[in-house]
Amino acid sequence: MAWDDEPTDLATEPLVASRIPSTHPLHQPWQLTATERERYRLMAQRSREQSRRAAAGELDRLHEVNVPALDTRDLMPREEPNGLRALSLYSGGGGLDVSFERAGFEHVASYEILEHAAETLARNRPEWEVHGGADGDVHGVKWKDWRGKVDVLHGGPPCQPFSNAGRQQGHLDPRDCWPATVKAIRAIQPIAFVAENVPALASAKFTDYVRDVIVEPLERSRPRYYMHRVLLEAKDFGVPQVRKRVAFVGFRSKKAYDAFRKPAPTHAWNDPDSDLPRTMGVREALGLAQMEEHPDRLAPTIRSGLTGPRFTTSICNSTSAAKSWAALGLWPNGVAVTREAASAFPTDTGAFRLSVADVALIQGFPPTWTWPSAVYQAVGQIGNAVPPPLGWAVAMAVTAALSAS
Ligand SMILES: C[S@@+](CC[C@H](N)C(=O)[O-])C[C@H]1O[C@@H](n2cnc3c(N)ncnc32)[C@H](O)[C@@H]1O
């Protein structure tokens, strides 16, 4: 059932299957009655009609085109080249790639199974070596060929096997790519690696998994790796969003491992006693007016619909997040392709409609990074990404540890 449903008194009505066939083995169709399906059909029909009228300029604008106050490039200054080469696995739309690039690393290559995500990388950085689609599948690569050509390997293996939304099946989920990641590290033997994931991977439920699949194989490998596990929050790096990530940071040298320090916050959210620069609330960051009825806060966690039950241009998948977006006066569904299109397509509630550029900003991407694919693919890639300012702080901490050792 969709998150924003009103309670229904149709509990006794039988469920009917969708007429649209599943195209993915892990597709989880909605369980709906015929009445509910009809209601959604009418809603979708109305939404399409409104979208058409918006594109034709037939609707009155409620909001001007916004001019953001936050420039995320200020959160992650572009460093001089540091002489280190970075290889990217599971590159998605480029969150970690951008982080390492801005931290001064030379980009060696990216591997990403989704063609449209690889296209984002290729379009933004035509000079990069990008392996997309079947060619980007980490399972088919002869990693040994990269040995001696990579200093730092980074990547965020798919998190669905560990996240609540993905049903937390761990190694039973065919999307689990941690064994492939460990295999790549052992074959390439980089001097350091960064592998990030959802905080659930650090929870008690996956203690055995982490020990058996990640830590022990890398501690027993030749060369062996020494590993830190750090929990980080995007708001501590100036990103106006509630988002936590866990990163495994491994080093071949014990000295570098000892020298590594968890990145210290660069910004502070809502802490008048802190001397750090302030993390903006999301309304301020987007350049929206401060309103008494919509007190400014961090945005709730942006969700990627890419691996969910159906293609969606929404970035929200829970009732509590929907309430937080509503309290902010922001509309997390039907994200528009541009700020201009968002302004021309008023929402029924009067809430501010977000655009792809706004969603990317809330995730910390630089404004110069563009999204060539369809809106659902773009917001899916953005929602899957490491916020670049957070990734930048990790990349800087790795550089510092390597140069101190
Ligand atoms: C959590 S996202 C990574 C996001 C990325 N690190 C960023 O910061 O933007 C995981 C990515 O792994 C990709 N992926 C899944 N299975 C893969 C495979 N077998 N080979 C390569 N990429 C894969 C997914 O398409 C998805 O884009």
From TrEMBL:
It is an enzyme of class 2 (transferase). Pfam families: DNA_methylase. One of its GO terms (molecular function) is DNA (cytosine-5-)-methyltransferase activity. InterPro entries: C5-Methyltransferase, C5_DNA_meth_AS, C5_MeTfrase, C5_meth_CS, SAM-dependent_MTases_sf. Keywords: Methyltransferase, Restriction system, S-adenosyl-L-methionine, Transferase. It catalyses: a 2'-deoxycytidine in DNA + S-adenosyl-L-methionine = a 5-methyl-2'-deoxycytidine in DNA + S-adenosyl-L-homocysteine + H(+). SUPFAM superfamilies: S-adenosyl-L-methionine-dependent methyltransferases. GO terms for biological process: DNA restriction-modification system; methylation; negative regulation of gene expression via chromosomal CpG island methylation. Residues 1-22 are annotated as: Disordered. Coiled coil: none annotated. The active site is at C159. Its EC number is 2.1.1.37. PANTHER family: CYTOSINE-SPECIFIC METHYLTRANSFERASE, DNA (CYTOSINE-5)-METHYLTRANSFERASE 1. Belongs to the class I-like SAM-binding methyltransferase superfamily. C5-methyltransferase family. NCBIfam families: dcm. This is Cytosine-specific methyltransferase.
